[in-house]
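In the lab's daily routine, each protein ends up as an entry in a very long ledger. A line of letters takes care of the sequence, but it says nothing directly about the fold. The three-dimensional part falls to structure tokens, numbers that each stand for a local backbone shape. The outcome of that step, for a single protein, is printed below.
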Amino acid sequence: MKIQAAVSHEGARYPQIEALDIEEPRAGEILVRIVASGICHTDIGVSGRPGPRPFVLGHEGAGVVERIGAGVTELAPGDHVVLSVNFCGECPSCKRNAHSYCYEVLPRNFGGLRPDGTSPLSKDGQRVFARFFGQSSFAQYSLADARCAIKVPSDIPLEILAPLGCGVQTGAGAIVHSLQVGPGDSVAIFGAGSVGLSAVMAARLVGAERIIAVDLVPSRLALAKELGATDTIDASNDADAAKTIRDLTRYGVSHAFNTANAPISYTQSLQCLAPRGVAGFVAPPNGQFVPDMFHLLSGGRSLRGILGGDTTPSLFIPMLIDYYRQGRFPFDRLIKYYPFSEIAQAFEDSSAGRAIKPVLRMPS
């Protein structure tokens, strides 16, 4: 079957839309008609780095199941699904429902091929890398691993639900699962993009007493305040956000969550911690960062990496949808929509900070 897909090529700044061929579903796979796909900074980062090419990216897909492969029993044609992280289902992490820490997480999500070395996409008989996060959702259709798919209610537009596949659940999950922020706790959130603002909403949801958002963009800080932040810090005017946080809280915060990649944000997320505080981060620093080990040791503080918010998507995404219905988790306020044909503009706006969560609408 011929489809339209956005293809990343070596040396190209943005993906370009091309006609590709897609296979029929194999065992354990589903063919999904993509209705919408969020754009995450992981897509932008991978598109701009050397790697398998040509490659169809996209890992926040939402759509309707068209066909199923052999052995797929929990989904049927017509089901509405959100696509999330790919995992093996057999390793020790998967058996504990820690899917983001699957022992095969890198090849299954970034390798561009099935475990047997094949790809479901091609052009003029030549292989096109796909299977990004088991889905490659920058396309009209995705041949996804059924494990990636979470069935969702059909009465909520799929274009709203698409961002739940990665960025939103990562931010919310980091607060709820990874850092286990609870009533009366304090948290500093560095970066007010889609992940950071999802963390702000989740911190309010769990009853955190102090929620401090740090960013460089005043409009994002204003939105953070509307979504539940008790305090905001404009880092463009405050060279020492960590000291400001300590002044606000007297001893520092019990938790810090860093979604930015500037080395200074890693340093400050540790410096603002109270004794026995925990700082989490979701991306490697863009430059050198050396943690102050004495600061960690002297206060029993911790620094930990977080993937996917430590969630089980099949459980957590329906939970977030329920909170959205209740008006307690309005993540749709982060979304800016683009037609699929304007994917380059969406990439540009996301990189420049003009869009918090770009979502591509696929042509019907």
